[in-house]
Design a protein that fits this description.
By secondary structure, this protein is of the alpha+beta class. It has helices at residues 2-5, 46-66, 90-111, and strands at residues 7-10, 14-22, 33-38, 73-81. Strands 1-2-4-3 form a four-stranded mixed β-sheet. α2 (46-66) packs across α3.
Length: 114
């Protein structure tokens, strides 16, 4: 469903899909972020792939804590990792990922949720 109805951004290091849905239960105030990631075995050994997974989880956790407002929407995020992501350090990865997710969310809210 995220591939059909979601918005995406493709960059050199990863491809991000974001799907924003209105809450099914409007009484719950907390915004729920569901994170998925696809990391091919060609990226590296299991140690490297798990390191990337841990970094992505932590970046999204910090993003939710600092940026996301409780506005009655749930957000699904899917990240498809490319091999070039190994060139990024943690801070640069966080800045790029949050920038792309924020731009998709803004575009999504402007176009589809009116």
């Amino acid at each position: 469903m995220i591939f059909k109805k979601g918005k995406s951004v493709d960059c050199e290091y990863f491809k991000v899909f974001v799907l924003i849905k209105k809450k099914e239960v409007p009484n719950i105030d907390e915004t729920i972020i569901r994170l998925g990631y696809i990391i091919n075995k060609k990226i590296g050994s299991s140690v490297i792939r798990n390191k990337i997974k841990r970094r992505l989880k932590e970046i999204i956790r910090n993003y939710k804590k600092n940026v996301i407002k409780n506005d009655g929407f749930d957000i699904d995020i899917l990240i498809i990792v490319k091999k070039e992501i190994l060139l990024l350090n943690y801070n640069l990865l966080g800045v790029l990922l949050c920038k792309y997710i924020e731009s998709i969310i803004e575009n999504f809210k402007k176009s589809d949720l009116k």
